[in-house]
Amino acid sequence: MFELRDKDLRAATFSWLDKTGPFVDDDRLDEADDYFEYQDVEVTTTGLGEAARRTKAGVECATYSFVGGRINFAVSLLRVDHGLREERYGRYSVSNLWETDALVNQALAAEGLIGSWPALIEAARRRFPNLEIGELHANSALAREPFEASLRDRSLELMKVLNDYVAGRSEAGVDGPVAREIVETYFTGERALFTGESATNQKMFAKEMTFERTSGGSYFAHWHGKISHRFFRMHFEWPLGKDRKKLEIFYLGPKITKS
């Protein structure tokens, strides 16, 4: 603990904490099955719940906890369960800090805040080596859209799923157990994150959904990842040929087939 001797700064700091933030709901990540527990205690609407959502999405984050209390939070990692006890979807290990010096060091070492479309594309290229990501931010459809943190986080979540899928294939391009599980979880069912356009939309918007490959040539990419906020979509290469070592992302922006 440390003592803040500047009374004006102390008053301003406590006023900010009390009235302005940081609050979980200010920048909450979208999650379809939004229920999380830690040691059988629900943490969905807490900072730990948000950290679990971001860890699940592959977004760099950590929590800061105070020492003491009924539950000992002076440990790392914090194992957070996703889903009801009767039907768990997974468990996520959240990095946790409880010493001021460690918090400062973590903040200084963390990747710079992604605050623009170009910065998002640059960060995605670093994080996801199995994806081929072109100059998505140069597309006027995205460039004229206001940047928003929730769109950033959801885009990274979708890209992580696709990156993990490619990582789960063999050298011969055959889906292994992890890749098959990803297809089953995210590409099938009424609430699938990734779907193809209807036959009608494929015909009506064929030109709009045909993109230039970074390596040359064109590709008709009607498969897309869904971002419900502001009706965004991410179009990508699917199905992935056995000879392909990377999966290409062609478009990020407002829904193309939106009437």
Walk me through this protein's architecture:
This protein is an alpha+beta fold. It folds into two domains: 7-109, no CATH class; 117-254, no CATH class. 32% of the residues lie in helices and 18% in strands. It has eight helices and 13 strands. The protein has helices at residues 7-20, 47-56, 100-109, 117-127, 140-143, 149-167, 177-186, 199-204; strands spanning 36-38, 41-42, 63-64, 78-82, 90-94, 96-97, 131-133, 194-195, 210-212, 218-220, 224-227, 232-236, 247-254. The strands form four sheets. A five-stranded mixed beta sheet has the order 7-13-12-11-8, with helices on one face. The protein has a four-stranded antiparallel beta sheet with strand order 2-1-4-5, with helices on one face. Strands 3-6 form a two-stranded parallel ribbon. A hairpin with a 2-residue loop joins strand 1 (36-38) and strand 2. Helix 4 runs parallel beside helix 6. The chain is globular and about 65 Å long. The termini are far apart. The mean pLDDT is 87.
